[in-house]
Design goal:
two-stranded antiparallel sheet; alpha+beta; 9 helices; single chain; five-stranded mixed β-sheet; rod-shaped
């Protein structure tokens, strides 16, 4: 893919060089036109000596001196080489001008001192060399910036893949723990849970390998997960859900970005003896997608080793990698400590 995009770019650069130098070499025509509209070719050649000198010093720097000396940090040799070239070309161009195109013997006004012409030609050559350096430096910077962005993108993709590889076992471990708990007291529910788990596995093993998935698919996965959790928890636990998204929404969202928040609600929001509730709401509008979870708060003790505790940490890392400066994640505990709220809003790209 990179080669197919580089070829048109290279062609464009060559075309720009041809057009610019073509205009530069055509400029002496304005000084070589006779009053009758014809061109004085001797005058044209006379005025073309400087453009030719500029052309030569430009490409000597562009193709040889800048890449072989300046880019390899031989700055002193680079400056000395350019100084020598400017000196030689200035003397040579003035010699050609005086030898091939001597001033007329009878001239109605005195000519300026010769050193004025030497200084003018030298300044023009220095400008051409400086322009060549500036263009090559800008190209090098552009290439370095493109390589840096590619390196950042590759590193980000590798980090995200690593996070997904960590998150999948974490999620599956928690789900298997839930089914294991069901087997002890309700075999029929455990069998049903295995069926629900198979639906979740299909999503986790296949769709989760993409960087982004349609929001509608993520919502289907969340619904299946909540139904799986309903099987496990007591009927006395009040679980309310609200999903307000566009029908068959294709809004891209990072897979499993909300599931750890929901897992956390089921882990810390249910008590075997006290009234418990979990309210899950996911909304979508033109600007953002928000997941708000409000649940009762029953913190686990240190003796409770269920889960690995990495879910929310992974969410934070993924948010920074995928949605840096484009998300708001607010977490709060009620004054009496009995209710916990987590709200994550992700700004959509087209609204930035």
């Amino acid at each position: 893919m990179k080669q197919t995009t580089d070829i048109p770019r290279h062609t464009l650069v060559v075309l720009i060089h041809i057009i610019c130098w073509g205009l530069f070499f055509a400029f002496p025509i304005f000084f070589a036109q006779r009053s009758n509209g014809t061109i004085d070719w001797d005058a044209f050649l006379h005025h073309s000596i400087f453009p030719l000198s500029s052309f030569l010093i430009f490409y000597l720097n562009y193709f040889i001196l800048v890449p072989l000396l300046l880019f390899k940090e031989h700055t002193r040799q680079f400056l000395l080489a350019n100084l020598a070239i400017v000196l030689i070309m200035t003397l040579g161009s003035r010699y050609l001008n005086n030898a091939l195109f001597p001033p007329p013997i009878f001239f109605d006004r005195p000519l300026p001192p010769q050193y004025i012409f030497y200084l003018r030609d030298a300044a023009g050559l220095v400008f051409a060399a400086g322009l060549s350096v500036a263009i090559r430096m800008s190209i090098r910077w552009s290439q370095a910036e493109a390589e840096r962005r590619e390196a950042v993108r590759s590193r980000t993709e590798a980090e995200l893949k690593n996070l997904r590889n960590q998150l999948n076992p974490h999620f599956l471990l928690n789900t298997l723990n839930n089914i294991y708990a069901l087997i002890a007291f309700d075999t029929e529910k455990a069998q049903q849970a295995v069926q629900e788990l198979s639906k979740l596995l299909r999503y986790v093993l296949y769709d989760n390998q993409q960087m982004f998935v349609p929001l509608s698919k993520e919502i289907d996965f969340i619904r299946n997960y909540i139904e799986l959790m309903r099987i496990r928890v007591s009927p006395q636990v009040d679980i309310q859900t609200s999903f307000h998204i566009k029908p068959e929404s294709q809004t891209p969202i990072a897979p499993l970005i909300f599931i750890s928040l929901i897992e956390n609600a089921f882990k810390h929001g249910i008590s075997p003896t006290e009234p418990s509730f979990i309210n899950i709401a996911i909304t979508e509008n033109e600007k953002e997608v928000c997941c708000t979870i409000h649940n009762s708060n029953y913190p686990k003790t240190r003796a409770d080793k269920s889960g690995s505790g990495i879910g929310l940490e992974q969410v934070s890392k993924r948010l920074e990698l995928l949605y840096a400066k484009r998300y708001r994640w607010k977490r709060s505990l009620s004054a009496d400590g009995k209710a916990y709220t987590s709200s994550l809003c992700i700004q959509l790209p087209h609204s930035v």
